[in-house]
Amino acid sequence: MINRYLVYMFIVVINLFNLIYGQVKYYDRKYDSFDGDYFVQNPRLLQRYIECFLDKGPCTPVGRVFKSVLPELITTSCAKCTPSQKNFARKTFDAFKKFLPNEYDELKKKIDPTNIYIDSFEKAISGD
């Protein structure tokens, strides 16, 4: 009887451990409602953010947050991104490529100088 009890408790403890530590940790969700469409359709705003990311201009408080997680986003292929964060990242990077291609290339070289992470990152946020 004790053996069954010990086995049962062991299973409960393992499941509890997996529940607590096995969950995917996401980035802060407070920016999930950030209006990505407005952002990418505003060339002046896009320019200000990419200048922030490239250390060529001042950063807004939101820009500082995005800039601080940007290297991890790229190297982990946005592993801790919520679906809405992936969508926002896709829209933003697509807009950078379309409207600011030179700055986008510079940003890629800054964040991924060996060019080993960017393709996986872009595939991960593509939604395919």
UniProtKB/TrEMBL annotation:
Keyword Thylakoid: no
Keyword set, alphabetical order: Membrane, Transmembrane, Transmembrane helix
Protein origin, superkingdom: Eukaryota
One Pfam family hit: OS-D
Residues spanning the membrane: 6-24
Stretches assigned to coiled coil: none
PANTHER family listed in its UniProt record: CHEMOSENSORY PROTEIN-RELATED, GEO07322P1
Protein's UniProt name: Allergen Tha p 1 isoform X2
Taxonomic path: Eukaryota, Metazoa, Ecdysozoa, Arthropoda, Hexapoda
